[in-house]
Amino acid sequence: MNIALIKQYHENMPRHKAEQIVLYALQRLGLLSIAYKRNPSLTNEERFCVMLLRAVMVRDAIVIIDRPLNIIPNLKGYDFIFQTLKKIEDFFITCHIYDYKWMAEKYGEI
Amino acid sequence: MSVLENIGRLEIKMFKAFTDTIMFAFKVIFRMFQRRTYSSAMRMVLLNQIYFTSVQILPLFFIVSIILGSLLVGIVFQLLKQLGLTDFFGNVLMGLIVTELSPFLTVLLITLRSSAAINTEMAVMKVNREIKTLEIFRIDIIDYLILPRIINGVISLVLLSSLFSILLLTSGILFSRLIFGMSIDVYSNIILNSANLSDIVISLIKCAIFGFFITLIPIRFGLKASQELTSIPIVVSGGMVGVFTAIIIIEVLSLITKLF
């Protein structure tokens, strides 16, 4: 729930209001169950989503993902990342993913 | 020559640490009086801290205060009776026990419980890069982490020391009856006549200063931790030594203040 802190601090928002926004975002990602879990108990995918949500909590967010495989080493297809970004696309302005050149084909047409 | 060099180096190091702490204290005090510091997140942390320091400790604090307080009052009253100084018992109770020993014992209790916890918490946050993460998200650590803990230290020390004094005075009722055969009315009258407003004000100011430094010093030391786990015990022990040194310095300064 420390994701809510960013919004609460920057917008001087009451805690419960910031928490509601985060819970709504988690619900859209189908991760409501991890709302009150701590970092070590999360899977890599869940941790990625939490990092993403933290990033989009700032106003007019521009998301930069640096080598997604560093965050989710066992990732099979990059579709997971795109699906996740799509589910919360109204939370950020744009997203840039940086990776090695030889990984380009994994991203397909995008 | 090398001995002199070492002494000089140590002196410079101590002087630098002292001036750094004072500069940091001024920075924190400056922020304390800025309105924008008191954001929703900061107020939430402040409330939590007050709960951890002042409320959670209450059962233990009550037990320790009653046992220690009764012991002190009992010994002092017995001693006064033996020395034939019964007339001065009000002055001794207010001047020594309430205005001197209450803040001192309270600060010792809070230092052992909360300062050590704050010191470790800060060091662990530094090692786990949580502080770096807060900075990345432009969350001011002075506003969000440091000030709530320091303000809590000031508030808690003043309140708990006052509570300690009240418990001491209450146990004084029992002992004055047992040792001097004194009624509550006479006891209250003597206490009220012996109470000196300036002493009480100095005592409360001393508590506030104690509260400020027993939280500021552990935070400063905690933030000195490097990225390695092994640095945690080093900064915690350093911080605790710093806190106890500060307590002694403040105690001596308050005694000097009372002389004038």
Any overview of this molecule?
The complex is a heterodimer of chains A (110) and B (260). Chain A has 110 residues and is an alpha+beta fold. Chain A is built from 5 helices and 2 strands. Chain A is globular, with a radius of gyration of 14 Å. In chain A, helix 1 (3-10) packs across helix 2. Chain B is mainly α and 260 residues long. Chain B has a domain at 38-61 and 94-162 and 195-259. In chain B, 87% of the residues lie in helices and 0% in strands. Chain B is built from 9 helices and no strands. In chain B, helix 4 runs antiparallel to helix 6. Chain B starts with a helix and ends with a helix. The chains are: A alpha+beta (110), B mainly alpha (260). Chains A and B meet through helix 1 of A and helix 2 of B.
**Which of globular, elongated, flat, extended, rod-shaped describes the shape of chain A?**
globular
Instruction: Provide the helix percentage of chain B.
Output: over 70%
Strand content of chain B: under 5%
Multimer state: heterodimer
Q: Outline the biggest β-sheet of chain A.
A: 2 strands, parallel
Total of DSSP H or I helical runs spanning 4+ residues of chain B:
9
Compute the CA-based radius of gyration of chain A: 14 Å
Work out the strand percent of chain A: 5-15%
Largest binding interface between chains: A-B, 12 and 8 residues
Order of helices and strands of chain A: HHHEHHE
Note the gap between the termini of chain A. Answer: 32 Å
- Poorly predicted regions of chain B are none
Q: Whole-number average pLDDT of chain B?
A: 89
The radius of gyration over CA of chain B amounts to 21 Å
The secondary structure category of chain A is alpha+beta
DSSP E strands of chain A, number:
2
The secondary-structure element order of chain B is: HHHHHHHHH
Widest sheet of chain A: strand order?
1-2
